Structures are given as structure tokens and as C-alpha cells.
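User: quick one - fold this with farnesyl diphosphate bound?
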Amino acid sequence: MVKAGRVPEHVAIIMDGNGRWARQRGLPRLAGHRAGVEAVKRTVEAAGKAGIRYLTLFAFSTENWKRPAREVKGLMKLLVHYAANELETLRSNNIRVRVIGDIYSLPEEVQEAVKKCERATKDNTGLTVILALNYGGKWDIVHACKKLCEKVARAEIRPEDVDEELLSKELATVGIPDPDLVIRTSGEKRISNFLLWQCAYSELWYTDVLWPDFGSKEMAQALMEFGRRHRRYGGLEKTRGRTYS
Ligand code: FPP
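Assistant: Sure. C-alpha cells for the protein plus farnesyl diphosphate:
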């Protein structure tokens, strides 16, 4: 792993390239997603070892419903298996799981599996793994606005009370610091409706490596690069993240 530098507190990943990985091997797309689950396991381990506190994984976007029904069904099945098979490993490694997104529109078995994971790991104090499921940055902001409108309608707050802090508190990520570093694999350089509000000042790191090939080596490269970045948040020199050796 990386020897020294600033560790991002929160790393968020757009896991891309499963389909291309499968195509390159003459395999069905779902084989790419299955290999992607193995990359998830490696990455969770690498993040824990590096001292990252929060790791968000974009597992299913609000746009992914546009994919063929068979692929969507396969992805849901993989999520259920991951939540069930990894629960013991997550629990014994002091990893907490949180889910963000419009999960009530997901199949019931997915909801139950991920909620079980959340419940069983809620007291863990190590790495928090945040699964973004049926998540979209626009959905998150609209959902937060609706909640604020409801509060205004109930006369709990006044429209003039609404500010960045109040809105942040209604986002799915409440209590989680904004990502310091966003990684996207497979050479694509887009945010694709990921954590739109939360990524306002995130550092972005792209790699051509396809998600199923991602592992500790690529995580180390990303962290090295992050350590070299100067973060100014629109102002002058300022750094965030903890120093480790
Ligand atoms: C993008 O690759 C990947 C996804 C839309 C799904 C990511 C899901 C997993 C890695 C498996 C389940 C996750 C967890 C957390 C257990 P793509 O299909 O868009 O690839 P392509 O652009 O090459 O077609």
C-alpha cells in the first residue's frame, strides 16, 4: 500500500467497465458483474487497510433500469448474494454498511438483504461501506427539497431558513462527510448523476482499468495521486484528510 501521505476520509467509486471486461472475454455481461463483485471485496479490504473511513460504491443508478430486464434481475441477485455472503466478513472486520438511494423501489428481497446488513453492522466502528442503490444525485436533491417543502408546509421552518446546511441534512448522505476523492474506472470521465451535491469539491481520479480488474494496486495509485493534490475549496491553500505513515 501507500507509504505516506494524506488519506482521504471518504472515497467514492463509480465502478465502470464490467460489460466491456466480459465482452473482451466473450462472456455474457453478467459474468462481468460477477467479476465486479470480486473487485468490490478486494476494494473494501484495501480501503480498510489504507485507513479510509467511508467508501461509497455506485452499485445501481436510477438510470440502470434502462438495461435489459435480464441484466437488472442478475444485478439484483448479485446484490442479495453479496449482502448475504459477505455479512459475516463485514461484521467480523468491524465494517459498517449503509445504503443510500430510493431503495423502496427495489425488489423486496434486495431491500430485506441490505437492511439486514445495515442492522447487523450498525454498531461497527471501522470502515463504513455505503452502497448507492437505485441512487441518483438528482433524485437525492429533489427528495431533500420535498422534505424541506413538507417542513415548510408544517410550519416547522420558514422558506428563508433554507440554506446549504439544512438541505444537506435532508440528503441520503446525512452524517457522512462529502467525498474527498471520486474514482471512476474504465476510462470514462463523467460524474453520471453520482453524488452531485456532495462532489462539489471532490478530487476526481480516472483510470483506464476496467472495474473487475481494480484492486489494491489501483487504490494505492489513486491515494498517491490524492496525496499530491492541493485542495483549495475555491480559496487559498488548505488541506483536508488525515496524515498517516
Ligand atoms: C458498470 O459497468 C457497473 C454497474 C452498473 C454495476 C456495478 C455492480 C457491481 C460491481 C456488482 C454488484 C455490486 C456490489 C456492491 C455487490 P457497465 O455494465 O456499465 O460496464 P460497460 O460500460 O463496460 O458496459
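One thing worth noting: The pocket of farnesyl diphosphate is lined by residues 15-20, 33, 36-37, 40, 57, 59, 64, 78-79, 82, 131, 186, 211 (CB under 6 Å).
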